[in-house]
Amino acid sequence: MNSLKPLTSAKPQDAVLAKNRILRSWERCQASGAALHADPNPILAADLQTRLEQHANVLHLAQSEIATLASLVASAQSVVLLADASGVILQEAGSTEFLRKAEKVALQPGVSWAESLRGTNAIGTALFDAAPVQVHGSEHFLECNKILSCHAAPIFSPRGEVIGVLDISSEASMLHAYAMGLAKICARQIGNRVLEHTDTRLHRVVFQRHASMLDSVERAILLLEEDRIVGANEAALCLLGSDWSLLDTSVHDWLDDWRQLDESPRALHTRNGAQLTGTLRSGRAPGLPRSAPIIPAQDAPAPGQKKRATAGMKLALPPLADEMKSNMQHAITAVNAGMAVLLQGETGAGKEIFARHLHNLSQWHQGPFVAINCGALPESLIESELFGYEAGAFTGARREGSRGRLREAHDGVLFLDEIGDMPLLLQTRLLRALQEREVQPLGSDKRIPVEFGLISATNHDLMTMVENGSFRADLYYRLQDFDVHLPPLRERHNLRNYLCQEFQRLGGADRSMILTDSALQNLAAYSWPGNYRQLHSVLRRLVHLQAAGSAIKATDLPPEFQGRDCIAPAQRVTPTCPASTLRAISDQTIERAIAESRNNITHAARSLGVHRSTLYRYLRRHPASP
Ligand SMILES: Nc1ncnc2c1ncn2[C@@H]1O[C@H](COP(=O)(O)OP(=O)(O)OP(=O)(O)O)[C@@H](O)[C@H]1O
């Protein structure tokens, strides 16, 4: 293996020169040629095991594609490989004869095929470019890999991050015309499955040009939280003529008549007037297991009975800031001891992300995470949604009745988001259910026992609400056995470093862009009223609206980040800053955003990086502001 040297002096053949992607990859490899070597350096078996566990859900969702592809390509002396986002191969399948040959060049689980280690190759170069790549024979940078012909396609997360690569490889002497197309289709299908299993409480708009394509691999999917787009696939971007910056915008901005959609295919129009066909689907993909199986009431386990495993898709969560780690430890102890945890913090400060981490790390991690947005449920539906109902309990009820969200949370975690927005009357019923750990569905005299970890979140000051009578004191005390304050983003330690890191992660690195010192200074000095949500939306816009390769200066930033509008470092809000100052900053920022959007609340909310309903709520609550 050591005798196999990289071609650092020779240029690839003429035919290869025509392929820009390969050429650019060769240039990168030649620039860092000294660091490349043929020695594969496999990771330790224990590290591979950890990666397999971390990626268990994607691997699980990819199995049917891998099995189908493997049986297709085995007879053509080819193999199928699945690698993670760092290029480490996690799984192989296909022709046993070629697998043996592939091992000679370390094309096997536990070896990283990142371009920075193995030179131009399909897995590594597809990862670098976040695009499908075919690398044939001599197009490989390292001499030893020239025996291979490889075709790799990235698998995208619902937020547009590459979460893995699917590869079909064979000997270079055999050119397989269909391999690239197959790899692309299967990678897309795996991405669709991930999207359909991401968060079962969310709705999906599925659309295409013709109804016959709504269940095909080409189906376009948007994942919605209320009307905000929180996930998508490439087919959706393509049909809507957008890039990933469409995330966190309102679906109203893209599809005119999506509100009329239901489970049957209906006509749908893009904002450019193109006609499509679409349906609205609940979180569960047809024919696939629920991410969090429901236990029928009569099957509720006896105390101490082992919990069932869930096939739930737990996508990687953003890591918590270091300053939140000890809070997390205490919260885990509290929730495991049966205490209710209350998360308080500004909008977008990461309350739900904290709650999801807490679920994953608690004794309830094998059960479902059931999130209820108490502020978004129509008042008339909230009771049936929470407690369920018997068949025929009221006009319009589903014939088979409904279990209700509290029972769905059985054996997992119930997350009551925006608890401060729950109507006073319902607070009494909720308190009773929480105290007695029993649910009585509407129209039924049965009481059904439920057991779950309880986490609530709010961006109101609940204590003040208790004082002014808009929140029940007894419910407040029931919800906050343990209180966690999520600090706003502007108080994050090392905010500048975090900004750089996120800018690179969100595409700056791929597009060779940097933030100059002046831009960083203004971004770090800004008050970030929409916190992480706003930060990601602003950084994504910078990455995609500025030219690739640019160095972004303060003057390239939106107006609210330029000197006059951003808070000077000396005035930065600190944890001791009085609430009135904080209010004034929020009011000013919001006032300006609304003025700049010419009173268009949707646009103003988008520029602030918050959801429209959050902005409306703020304006209702603070009528003195604009
Ligand atoms: N620690 C973090 N690091 C990076 N991103 C984060 C972090 N916390 C939250 N985010 C991102 O910020 C966005 C908002 O997070 P989240 O929904 O948890 O906030 P929230 O406080 O619950 O907001 P709201 O009160 O408006 O519901 C999400 O896109 C999430 O991925």
TrEMBL record:
Q: Which CDD domains match?
A: AAA
GO terms classed as biological process? regulation of DNA-templated transcription
PROSITE patterns cross-referenced by the UniProt entry? SIGMA54_INTERACT_1, SIGMA54_INTERACT_4
Q: Which GO terms describe its molecular function?
A: ATP binding; sequence-specific DNA binding
Ranges of biased composition (kind: Low complexity): 292-303
Specify the domain of life of the species encoding this protein: Bacteria
Q: What region holds the Sigma-54 factor interaction domain?
A: 317-544
Q: Which UniProt keywords apply?
A: ATP-binding, DNA-binding, Nucleotide-binding, Transcription, Transcription regulation
Region feature Disordered, mapped onto this chain: 269-309
| InterPro entries in alphabetical order | AAA+_ATPase, AAA_lid_NorR, GAF, GAF-like_dom_sf, Homeodomain-like_sf, HTH_Fis, P-loop_NTPase, Sigma_54_int
Protein name according to UniProt: Sigma-54-dependent Fis family transcriptional regulator
Q: Which organism is it from?
A: Pollutimonas nitritireducens
Q: What is the lineage of its organism?
A: Bacteria, Pseudomonadati, Pseudomonadota, Betaproteobacteria, Burkholderiales
